[in-house]
Amino acid sequence: MVQQTNQSTDKAGQETDYRIMSDLEHILERPNLYIGGTNTLPVDLQLYKPSENRMMNYDDVGINDALLKFIDEIISNSVDEHRRSTSLFGVRKIKVRVEQNGEVCVEDDGGIRVKKHPTYKFYIPYMIFGILRSSGNYASKNPEIKEMREGVGQNGLGAKLANVFSEWFRVETADGQKSFDCTWRNNMKEYDEPVIHKTTDHYTRVSFKVDFRYFDCNAFSTGLIRLVQKRCMDAAAGNPGLEIEFTSEVGNGQLNSVWKFNDFMDYAALYMTDYQRKNVIDSYSIANLRDRIILVPTDDKNSVNMNVLFVNGAMCNEGTHLDKIKSQVNSYIQAILKSKDIDMMTNKDLEKNYNIFAYTTIINPVYDSQIKDKLSSKLDTYTLALSKEFLKKIDTSEVLTSVLDYYKLRYEAQKKKELRKLNQTIKQTQSKKLINCTGKNSMLNEMWLFEGNSAAAGFRMYRNPQTQAGYLLRGKIMNIIGLSKAEIVESVELREIIAALGLVFNNPEANLKNCRFGKIIICSDADEDGNHIAGLFLVFFCTLFPELVRAGRVYRAMSPIIVATNHRNHKQDLLYYTIDDYEKAEKKGLHKNLDIIYCKGLGGLSDENYSAMLQQQKLIKFNYDPSVDNEMLKIWFDKSTQERKNLLLADGLATEE
Q1: How many CB atoms lie within 10 A of CB 167?
Q2: Minimal CB count within 10 Å: which of 12, 69, 220, 326?
Q3: Which segments within 591-657 are labelled E, that is strand?
Q4: What is the mean pLDDT of residues 419-443?
Q5: Share of the chain above pLDDT 90, in %
Q6: What pLDDT is attached to residue 615?
Q7: Could you give the angle at which helices 642-650 and 626-637 cross, rounded to 10 degrees?
Q8: Using alpha carbons only, what angle is made at residue 261 by residues 397 and 320, rounded to the nearest 5 degrees?
Q9: Phi and psi dihedrals of 98, rounded to 5?
């Protein structure tokens, strides 16, 4: 038997599961979507300790983020008025009062226009605080009019959410001509008609009492009130010259205070130890008052090692602004570490050794949520761009010293172990391309490094097999700038050359003693490619084995570029190594009845001329001054650099595109 079911009843039941909520209902029933968590949770905080006049870490402080956000939003409204160029009066002072029973009052000396909107027919203060999704921060409908905000307000919800979650919410404001007074009740569901009077005063006062039914507490905790005090300090710090007064009944008024910072550094110093205050790298410039970046080394004695950043006058410690600063600092320090042959430290390692304090002004900031604690705006090239002067200060700073100390503590032993493995690999390397010599006196021996295999036959025929060895390249060697030693050893040619010379990494004294050759001679064609190969070898030796260059053991052989020969009389050829020498001889008539041969490369030399190059050597000995030469090698052989472009432009060898 088939049992029948009441399908219509089931269907009707499913249909009644659907509801249409009003905006207010949705906010009150789904608060997490709008204001974050409504539960009080223990968090570690940095709070101001008056007895020591500095910030201190406090563990497991009970904080309700949503309640804190309400107060933040109202304070931010006043701060935005201070920053807004179009504000009526320009806010210079803000008063904040917070009581444990949930009453809050924020008052400033500005004012809001007490006028009705020409389209919507509501008073402007009523729209700002009492109508959801209304704001002066919304972009114009005209696409030709671009939105230009320098405050933190974005969505037009913040202050209204405080209204929604309050038993009562009152707004009083005056614009020098009229005053406005309106009170909402019962979670913004009810309100009194606004009262308008004539006045010459100007101010804005927002007061409310939180409706604790929607939260897991029935009063503001002392920890939350202390955090509001710090937020007042933060707002004053992010807006130099703005005065903020904080009052509360907590501790019989012990938290009552007035905050005003004329210099951002005065605020940042509250987070620092004496050691950090003495080792500040500061970007301050009268030419750029929109950005300020302060860099200090971390200090183990400081319980508050953290980054502190402000966007448009409000604290915002995470996001694209912090990422941009860290990226520039890390890239600069990593370049220094590479020059010191340190390649194991990650950017996270570096960031453990410095703290950033910064503020910036962002046009139309975008945050990842209504909480506004993480900036997601895409920053332009100029915002928070660190100057060369700022970055150069890192070279001699305690920040770099801290990084190097960290490396020694964590990585140096591992680095030495890996270096031993690399050196062992080199010692075990043999090469079929090496033409060895038999002499035992290393200082009399010569290693000739040839461009290509075409030189092999002539070299084998005319060299001194006791003192002259050779290595035949396939072409250009690898450019080692920016490479780790492990990457260098992966190159077969470079590994074979190091092994053939009898060298090891990071042991200058042993290399001077054990190098198997008194002369290392780079022998490449006298053309652009040959010059490039010689340059790459210079980078190789100056970077990895500078002791050999300083000892005068690295040379470049000059090969003839023009040969004047007499095939009929078999007289000795005239060899010219420069155009100038050839032209001088030409003027003296020395080339009469001689054939002139232009040599394209080493492979074009006759046997006799090859012998002359090996036995009647014309060598250029290289010198090395790291204070000058390191920078020049970087300019010419690093990846595209502006300095190289400038030099080429100056010589007419490049054009602006």
Answers
A1: 16
A2: 12
A3: 595-598, 619-621
A4: 92
A5: 56
A6: 85
A7: 90
A8: 60
A9: -130, 125
